[in-house]
Write a structure and sequence with these properties.
Elements (H helix, E strand, L loop, with lengths): L6 E5 L6 H12 L5 E6 L4 H12 L2 E8 L2 E7 L14 E3 L9 E4 L3 H5 L7 E2 L18 E4 L4 H12 L5 E5 L14
Parallel strand pairs: 1-2, 5-9, 6-7, 6-8, 8-9
Antiparallel strand pairs: 2-4, 3-4
Helix pairs in contact: 2-4
């Protein structure tokens, strides 16, 4: 089945945050009501694009997958992309060492397996809503991803679900110089 889209964006071969960066730019060119089809190979893009669309008020329609290519469909809604919410409570990457809170890694399972901070809990962004019960609302939560984009969206999601001690860790795992734990 072919799904009609007004514009197509090729983000195949790109990893976070590039599919989102390119999607933002493409959406800015659309008029209200038009549909963008984003082709991507990054498995994490499904959760990333859905969460981003929700954070800026666009309609995430859905995703199809054929031969390892994900096709995401987003409908532009009246809100302007410039109204994107950014999570305000941040903490510098170096400041999380030695703190008693939980490091919540929202990268995909494969990213986590190839290297994460010791003691971090893995809940990929796309699974966060379904796994909120695994988290303690009384504990500080330091949300981290590769660059700070997915963790920003995850932090917003946690606060929307009643968590109050949430911090987005910036810049993200790309800048981590400490020991990496591998589980592969």
């Amino acid at each position: 089945m072919t799904i009609k889209a007004d514009f197509q964006l090729d983000a195949k071969g790109l990893s976070c945050p590039m599919p989102i960066v390119k999607t933002k730019k493409a959406m800015a060119q659309l008029v209200d009501g038009q549909i963008l089809e984003v082709s991507a190979t990054d498995k994490g893009s499904k959760a990333d694009i859905a969460a981003w669309a929700a954070s800026v008020g666009h309609q995430y329609i859905g995703t199809t997958e054929v031969d390892a290519v994900l096709k995401h469909y987003i409908r532009k809604c009246a809100q302007d992309v410039d109204n994107e919410k950014v999570f305000e409570s941040t903490i510098d990457l170096e400041q999380i060492a030695g703190r008693s809170g939980l490091i919540l890694d929202v990268r995909e399972e494969a990213e986590f397996a190839f290297g994460h901070i010791e003691g971090a809990k893995s809940i990929p962004l796309g699974e966060l809503e379904a796994r909120l019960s695994e988290l303690d609302k009384e504990r500080e939560i330091y949300v981290i991803c590769r660059t700070g984009s997915r963790s920003d969206l995850a932090a917003q999601q946690l606060v929307a679900n009643g968590f109050t001690k949430v911090f987005n860790v910036l810049p993200g795992m790309t800048s981590w110089t400490g020991e990496l734990i591998k589980t592969i």
